[in-house]
Give the backbone structure.
Amino acid sequence: MSYNLKIGICGWGNVATGLFEQLNQSVDNQPYEIVCIGARRDNPKCDPGDIKIHRDIFDVINEDIDVVVELIGGTETARELISKALNAGKHVITANKAVMYEHGHELINLANQKNSYLLFEAAVAAGTPIIKMLSNDLGANQVSKISGMLNGTTNYILSNMENGVSFEVALEEAKEKGFAEPDPSLDINGTDAAHKIGILASLALNSNLPANKFHIEGIENISAADFKYADEFNLTIKHLAVTKKAGAEIELRSHPVLIEKNSSLGGLSGVRNGIQIDTDLLGEFLIAGSGAGRESTASGLISDLIALSKHVESSPMNYPEFKDIPKIKSFESLDFSYYVYLEVQDQAGVLALVSQIFSENQISIDKIVQKDHLADGKVPVVVFTDLIKESQMQKALKNFSEQSEIYFSKIIRIEN
């Protein structure tokens, strides 16, 4: 059984108009009615017809509606809107990963107190189903690890860079196609993916929202040369967000990695998101789908509307309990193998110096590559290490920065 949902949409940008168009294209007798829209300005790309428009988005809450769909973005105004809607007895659906990450603990507790539902499927991986899967469908399983390519923009950029397109051109293409925001900094610097893995960690491993500080790194320093060297060893570069059980603690991190090209995540290109989940009963499995774009996000929003329309039969969402919250394991204590890129003086003895620094930090070298020449007498040296602690590698990088013969150094962690 389902009942007719009366909907108020707050926000009138790309995602909101995409949802509006998809709902209007649905078959007759659908269990939804868009009552009003909260929009500070019109959108010339979409005509809402005779639907009531409120210029003050908070006026939407006062309408005779069942659910507020929050699509304004940001954190503080969105937090206030969601809080007021829940306090007024309205259900809320949001695609806003930032507000769920920063204020999820507070907002979920408020929804429980008010016997309302706060649904956020589209906040992670757009329409690729993961939120309700973790909260409901995997209830019989213990999840031990989630590894995800959770940002469609960065995957689009990296996929195009692998094919020879520059970072700048790939980013502009992503903007033109609607895969990247006008200001894509949160995508590029890893924050967007970090918010999303934080939300997944709360559902799977009961971590807090927001999580305590953890390692976040973007793709700004990835270059075409990195893809060239990676390809020689059948590796590619992806931006990965990971959470994992580690005894009484958990891992939580968001950063670029080298990964095997023929792995389940390594083969995903374009704006596709991929999420690998390790469980005790089902084992390891992968879900993948589009992670950016208005149609994909509309899919996630509509899935929440469907779940909400049937909630008289079953709960649409099981929330984290936010008790006995695990500590986040120190990033410097984690073990990785590394790709190390150095630019050094083209002179005798420099390779010996590099090897000495690795040796002093008890870092074993697996492979070393030196065959190109750069301008100004510089030579690139690429080293692949054996498995070591992050703290050891950070000491080695500090030592490299202190040598006049070594002009530049960077690392990419290798994900097993």
User: Anything to note?
Assistant: DSSP finds twelve helices and 18 strands in the chain. The two ends are 46 Å apart (CA to CA).
